[in-house]
Specification:
6 helices; two-stranded antiparallel ribbon; alpha+beta; 51% helix; 154 residues
Length: 154
């Protein structure tokens, strides 16, 4: 089972690396940290297929600048959800070398904490995604809730 998971993850990573050869289109907006956000439905994938759920990822453009790519399904969501996803992706850029687009579980958690500390509703966003997509996020949600409770006690 792990072999299949590793194989699929490798394919997705190769797909995202190939986006440097594609045109991103026009910038939708700049984040507070001046990171360009582009919209491209074909580039946001889950398990190698264009995502049918709201999504985003980080990568580098042709000039090796970090960018965030979102799909239209994300842009159709409420602002609190968009803010949480963008803060999470910004966490990857700030913490994990933004040119990468595939992160391990520890790095996903660290980006969740970054978004939490940024003051957005990342726990609510992860719960929403967990219910919407079937992507198993319960472990990340549980860890982040424990972190949040610990922060309140400090």
């Amino acid at each position: 089972m792990q072999f299949i998971r590793d194989f699929i993850e490798g394919l997705v990573a190769q797909y995202h690396l190939g986006i440097q050869d594609m045109k991103l289109g026009s910038i939708q907006w700049l984040t507070e940290d001046d990171v360009p956000v582009y919209c491209n439905d074909d580039m946001v994938v889950i398990s190698g297929c264009p995502s049918r759920v709201p999504g985003a990822f980080t990568c580098e453009d042709l000039n090796n600048n970090s960018v965030i790519v979102v799909n239209r399904r994300l842009l159709d969501q409420d602002q609190w959800f968009i803010d949480a996803v963008i803060a999470h992706e910004t966490g990857h850029i700030k913490l994990h070398s933004g040119g990468r687009c595939w992160f391990n579980a520890r790095e996903e958690y660290e980006a969740d904490v970054y978004a939490f500390l940024d003051g957005v509703e990342i726990i609510r966003a992860l719960e929403f995604l967990n219910n919407l997509s079937g992507v198993r996020l319960s472990h990340r949600i549980k860890r982040l809730k424990a972190y949040a409770e610990e922060e309140v006690c400090l």
